[in-house]
Amino acid sequence: MKNSNFHQETKAIHAADGADKDSRPLSTPIFQTATFEVKAIEEQLKAAATDSFYTRYGNPNFTACETTLAALELAEAALVFSSGMAAITNSVLAVVQAGDHVIAQSDLYGTTYKFFTQWLPRYGIEITFIETNNLDEVKKALRPNTKLLYLETPTNPILKLVDLKAMAAWAKTKSIITIVDNTFNSPINLQPLPLGIDVVVHSATKYLCGHADLVCGAVASSADFIRKIYGVRSTLGSIMDAHAAWLLLRGMRSLPIRIERVNQNALRIAEFLQHHKSIKKVYYPFLASHPQYELAMTQMKGGGGIVTFEIKGSEEQACKIVNSLKLFAIAPSLGGLESLVTMPALTTHFEISKEERMRIGVSDQLIRLAIGIENVEDLIADLEQALNK
Ligand SMILES: *Cc1c(COP(=O)(O)O)cnc(C)c1O
After folding, report:
1. Whether 277 is catalytic
2. Ligand 1 centroid to 90 CA: how many Å?
3. Is 206 marked active-site?
4. What range defines the domain where residue 166 resides?
5. What are the distances in angstroms from CA 381 to CA 52, 176, 375?
6. Assigned domain for 1 exists
7. Are 153 and 194 in the same domain?
8. Would the pLDDT of 326 be above 60?
C-alpha cells in the first residue's frame, strides 16, 4: 500500500496488498506449510530473517495480518499469536525480568490477573494492583524497580476508563514501559500508540477476527519492541497457524464497518436501557451519565460494543431476563457478528468473593451485553420483551 494517509476502512482492506506484479491472486493464498525451501544452501541464512523460512518464526499469512494491524494501530510493526493470552504473556515477558516491579489495573481481565499473580512472582517479579484510572494511586505505587505499567481501558464489565495520554506521559518521565490491552476498543475506536503508549495487545479472538470462530492474539508497537517480543514468540512457540491467520485477515478487512455498526447499535441500546423503568444503572462510555464521559469523548472515537446494566430486583429476576432473551446468545466473549449476554457474577467474576465483587461494582443483578451487528430495532424489541416479563 503506497499511501499511508488512507482512511481506516481502506487500510483494513489494502494494507497487506502485495508488491505489484503482472498477475497475482487477489486474496493472499494460504501458506499451509511448516517450512520453506530455498534454491541453494547459500540462500538459507538470508531466508531465516524473512517470513518464508520456518513457520514458528513467521509465515506470509501472519505477515498479511501484521501489516494490516500495524497500519490500523499506526504502529511500526505488529505480531500475531495463538491467543490473546499468548500476546499478553509474551509481551510482558519481553519487557520484565527478575527483580522488576509491575503496576497494573486491579480489575484486569481474569486470566491476565492470574498470570500476574500466579506466574510472575515465581520468576521474582513483584506486582502492585491499583486503580489505574487514578494517577495519584499510580504515583504512590511507584518503586525504584518499577519497569512496567499494564493498563486496560475500558475495564470489564463496568467500563471504567484510563486516561492513556496522562499515564503514558507520567510513565515516560520514570522510564516505565506501558502496555495497554486494546481489545474492547479495537484500533477503530482507539489508537493508543499516538497517545504515547509503548505496546498495544489484543485478544484478536474478539473484534479483529470478528466472527467468533478463532482464538488468536496480536501485538502492535515500535520495530524495537516488536523485535524483542518476536524473540519470545519464536522461542515459546506461541504462534498462530496459517489457516487461522488467513481467517483473521478476512475478518480484519471488515473491522471498520463492523465497529461502526456496533458503536451505533450499542449507543442506541444503552440509551434505551437508561430510560427503562426496571433498570437501576447503565454503564456505557458514550452515555453522558458515565462518570468519565468527557474522557470518553476525547479519547475514543466510539463507545464500543459492551453495554452493562444493573436491574432493580433480585438475582433470580436478572437470570429470568437473560433466559427470556431470544436474539442474545448466553455466552462469554464479545466481538462477533452476533449479540451475546452474560452475567459477570456467574462467569468472569465467579471466583471472586461477594464482598470484593460488590466493591468493584459487580453485583448479582449485573447483566453484560456484547452487541453485534444485527438490526438494532430487533435487538431493542428483544430486550423490551425480556424486561417486561
Ligand atoms: C478475551 C480477552 C483476553 C484473552 O484473550 P484470548 O484470545 O481468550 O486468549 C484478554 N483481554 C481481554 C480484554 C479479553 O476480552
Report:
1. no
2. 14
3. yes
4. 8-253
5. 51, 48, 10
6. no
7. yes
8. yes
